[in-house]
Amino acid sequence: MPAGVQAVFDAVRAACPASVWSRGVELARADAVSGDVAGDEEISLQVAPPGALATLAVTLYLEDEEWECQCTSRDDACEHVAAAVIAARRARKEGRSLASREAQPGWVAYRLTREGGGLAFEREIAREGEPAFRLVATLDAIARGRVEGPRFHATEGDIDVERALGTRRRGPMPREAMPRLLAALSRCRDVTLDGEPVEASGEALGLVAAVDDAPGGFRLSVEPETEIDETFSNNTVRCGRVLRCMGESGLSGREREELPGGRFIPFDGAAELVTETLPSLEARMPVRVRTKRLPRSERTPPRTVVQVERRGDSLSVLATLVYGDPPRARVDAGRLVPLQEGPVPVRDRDAEERLVRRLRDTLGLQIGHRVDFASADAIEFTGALTTADVVLQGTAHREFALVEGLAPQVSLAADRFDAAFEGRGLDGRATKLDAASVLSAWRRGESLVPLHDGGFAPLPADWLNRFGPALADLLAARTGDGSLPRSAIPDLARLCSELDAPPPPELAQLEPLLRDFRGIPAAALPPDLRAELRDYQREGVDWLCFLREAGLGGLLADDMGLGKTLQALCAVAGRTLVVAPTSVLHNWLAEVARFRPALRAHLYHGPRRQLDPDADLTLTSYALLRGDADTLAATSWDTVVLDEAQAIKNPESQVAQAAFRLRADWRVTLTGTPVENRLDELWSQLHFTNPGLLGGRAAFDEQTARPIAAGDEAAAARLRQRIRPFVLRRLKRDVAPELPARTEQVLRCELDPEERRVYDALRLATRDEVARQLTAGGNVLAALEALLRLRQAACHRGLVPGQEAEASTKLTLLREQLDEALSEGHKALV
After folding, report:
1. Order of strands, edge to edge, in the sheet holding 407-412?
2. Do the bridges between strand 217-224 and strand 263-266 make them parallel or antiparallel, or are there none, so unpaired?
3. Of 16-25, 404-413, 508-517, 709-718, which range is least confident?
């Protein structure tokens, strides 16, 4: 079974309350789910709750481990999603389609027939390869089982048809019912007229006004907007394969009498036609003027007008053809549009064509098409514009002129970093540009950048190619007041070296981090430590303590089994919070008792949980971090450790947001898989340990993640160099001589609520009975059988007679551990 379906199943199971999951199981067992489960990225299914009229669409997004349901439930995962993922997982396991168990439910079909000059109506339930079932009752009655009938899926369109019918079921449809009925039928899949497929439209058929030549004048008439093939008595027409209602025309009583047959207008009434009648009709319907003899009261040559305005860093240009000075009319899409009251100009199409050709040949413009010229193109266009024979509107083109180049100015200090670029504007005075705008233009591949006071300056491309990436990294890390986080000092030091500038004084303290950790002093080990550290573990502890004293966070990414927990226990100081998966909390307690017995450990867990202010080490789970974010964030911790930190790999998740809110002097993350799919996962963990190191998420995505995904080796090398001081990763093969032949690990986990309920119920049911039998001298086999049942309940609920379960907490934990071991190339004996 593909991992995507299982992953979504696990995510939905974790998000579902027990009662919701139970209802989902019942729906899946009732075969309420149908659809195709063959998708690799997403699966779309239909869930038909028993007794419900309409089906609900559920979509499972396999890659993102997300889901979507049409219902209005406020639960993160509703019973319909649970039913869909259970059914999809079962179908995938069995290698079948959900439709293979029985025929797919039918659909509602609509059969229209011509009757008495109008339309009659019937409904059927149709199924592939089976005779149709004629409907004489409501869909709701069949869905609820009050009336016998086949299973079917109803759409919202089918429900709207039911509402439009009211108390009717079949037969001729009255005039007043047709608009609503056709609107509902437009969303239904199977509609026929006398056996021929047709479509319904909820949009009424409108009218248009037309002006044609007539002897001695003009003919004004109204006609349907499209050709009608058939008219029915109940206000319905057929246009090809589409059924529509006749719409309201908006005509007055006199107009309804005269215009359908056509009204004659003599030449001497043309002025009224142009100035009053047609504008009035245009307000209610489209007007088609099919005569060229309407009078023009003014003759004036056309002119080309070019409007210019600045839009950001671009010059926006729009060319139009106008008549009159000032313009009285404008040519839009081949039509003459009056711009003011008065005489209508007579069009000179030959003159218009000449102007159109000249505009195209000299400036490359088309009438009525707006063009935005980027900076370099705008400067070239401005030169041609000043010599063209056009009427200019606006002065924005004057701002697009080339000035001298920019000079970089970089100010470096221990905790501050400032950068700007200086140039001279159109007026010759000095002007400064912030580095962010210059870098943005450079990353977009532009050669020019706009100045504040007008004009465009060439970018210092050579300088930016050498120092631009480092400059961008520091700008992204800089806070609003210009200060730099301490984690950015190594980046600042490298830029100082490249610019031949003196390094910040604080660099000396962090020098070992830049020299592959050579020179890191040996840290004092805790006096209560009861463990003999291997050499690589000692190096890890020294590195962690060095970061702690320097006020920097770290990501310990050693392979599974190399002792990340032990190294962290040797380095923690002060009041410490450890966040780990629920399944490893007891392992942490055991490790503390084994290696640091002097530490007072407190488990923040369970329904009556409370923080112990006197505890040295507070242990909690990611689930409680998410649920109790306000409580845990209200405490100022000396140290925060995130174990299995891939739990915060999605920076938008609630658990990651809760982790970012924690207040701590020192932060550490432990994980054997720092990156599984996307670089966003690494950003999220380093944003926790060293906020600001990699800048904002958007900047990281634009400057680092996307270039690396596109194969930019330089960007990948720069990222490795930047994070090297703060990430320590050793593989088992790197330290193999120091490792024992095998590492033994006991996994501990807690039963989920449903498993605990079954276990406790079984224990209570058998305890008194076994005690009674033993007291009465019974065989000890009854006790052994009871223990066997309890062991089965603790391992997998599905082993207990009468119980069913898709998975168990123990198997889920084991699978996670095995997946991690296999991904790192290890062998495991369970």
Report:
1. 407-412, 417-424, 430-434
2. antiparallel
3. 508-517
How far, in whole angstroms, is CA 216 from its chain's centroid?
66
Say how far apart CA 469 and CA 542 lie, in whole Å. Answer: 32
Asked whether the predicted pLDDT for residue 616 surpasses 90, the reply is yes
| Measured CA distances, 387 to 318, 378, 394, 631, 765 (Å) | 17, 15, 16, 71, 100
Is 670 within 8 Å of 644 (Cβ atoms)?
Answer: yes
Q: How many residues does the chain have?
A: 830
Residue 514: how many other CB atoms lie within 10 Å: 18
Q: Taking a C-beta distance cutoff of 8 angstroms, is the pair 456, 374 a contact? A: no
CA distance 102 to 86: 18
259 within 8 A of 251, measured Cβ to Cβ: yes
Average pLDDT, the chain: 82
- Cα 759 to chain centroid distance, Å, stands at 41
The per-residue pLDDT for 782 is 67
Omega into 326 within 30° of 0, i.e. cis? yes
pLDDT at 636: 94
Residue 237 · residue 246 · CB < 8 Å: yes
pLDDT of residue 783: 67
Task: Give residue 116's pLDDT band: very low, low, confident or very high (50, 70, 90).
Answer: confident
Structure tokens at 527: 């006096």
Which residue reads 């007026």 in tokens? 427
Whose structure tokens read 């349907």? 224
pLDDT tens for each residue of 301-354: 889 988 988 887 788 999 989 888 888 778 887 766 767 766 766 667 788 899
What SS3 state is found at 211?
strand
Do the beta carbons of residue 393 and residue 322 sit within 8 Å? Answer: no
Between 775 and 213, residue with greater pLDDT: 213
What is the rounded CA–CA span in Å between residue 7 and residue 212?
Answer: 69
**CA gap 211, 153 in Å, rounded:** 51
Per-residue pLDDT tens over the stretch 688-698 = 998 888 888 88
> What is the pLDDT confidence band of residue 141, given thresholds at 50, 70 and 90?
confident
Query: Residue 512: in which H helix or E strand, if any?
Result: helix 507-514
Compute the distance between CA of residue 496 and CA of residue 121 in angstroms, rounded to an integer: 83
156: amino acid identity, one letter: E
What distance in Å separates the CA atoms of residue 810 and residue 830, rounded to the nearest whole number? 12
Cα atoms in the 13 Å half-sphere on the side-chain side of 761: 10
Say how far apart CA 637 and CA 575 lie, in whole Å.
6
Distance between CA atoms of residues 95 and 432, nearest Å: 67
User: Can you state the percent helix, strand and coil of the chain, rounding each to 5?
Assistant: 40, 25, 40
| End-to-end Cα separation, the chain, in angstroms | 22
**How far is the CA of 127 from the CAs of 153, 155, 161, 224, 785, in angstroms?**
11, 15, 19, 39, 52
Closest CA to 59 of 108, 160, 77, 49: 77
**DSSP 8-class letter at 347:** P
Q: How far is CA 305 from CA 161, 321, 322, 365, 366, in A?
A: 55, 6, 7, 11, 12
Please give the Cα distance from 249 to 260 (Å, whole number).
11
CA neighbor of 281 nearest in space, from 207, 203, 204: 207
Given its phi and psi angles, is residue 825 left (phi above 0), alpha (psi -120 to 50 degrees) or beta?
A: left
CB-based burial, 387-403: b 16+ in 10 Å, e otherwise = eeebeeeeebbebbebb
Q: What is the pLDDT of residue 643?
A: 93
Place of tokens 């998420």: 697
Number of H helices, E strands in the chain: 28, 36
Contacts 24+ apart (CB under 8 A), 162-167: 162/138
pTM (2 d.p.)? 0.50
Q: How far apart are CA 781 and CA 321, in angstroms?
A: 103
What pLDDT does 101 receive?
41
